[in-house]
Design goal:
The chain is mostly beta strands and about 70 residues long. The chain is built from no helices and eight strands. The protein starts with a strand and ends with a strand.
Length: about 70
């Protein structure tokens, strides 16, 4: 969701699932999010950079980079 114009994620993986992924288009950026057991991977597929919060902690991700947040 967005709060004050910023992206916020608090991903949850259902007990019987191994993983899931989805994409978010935000302004001129496309962010791919992969949620798996114990970690979430963010990849900026389009755009120069995007800032977001994961479980309340702020991050900035640059183009063609992955960011893995370990739970």
């Amino acid at each position: 969701n967005t709060t004050d114009g910023n992206l916020h994620f608090n991903p949850y993986l259902p007990k019987n699932w191994n993983s899931y992924s989805f994409k978010v288009t935000y302004h001129d950026s496309v962010l791919r999010i992969l949620v798996s057991r114990g970690k979430t991977t963010y990849t900026l597929e389009e755009g120069e950079s995007v800032s977001f919060a994961h479980s309340g902690r702020s991050y900035i991700l640059n183009k063609h980079k992955n960011m893995v947040v370990v739970e």
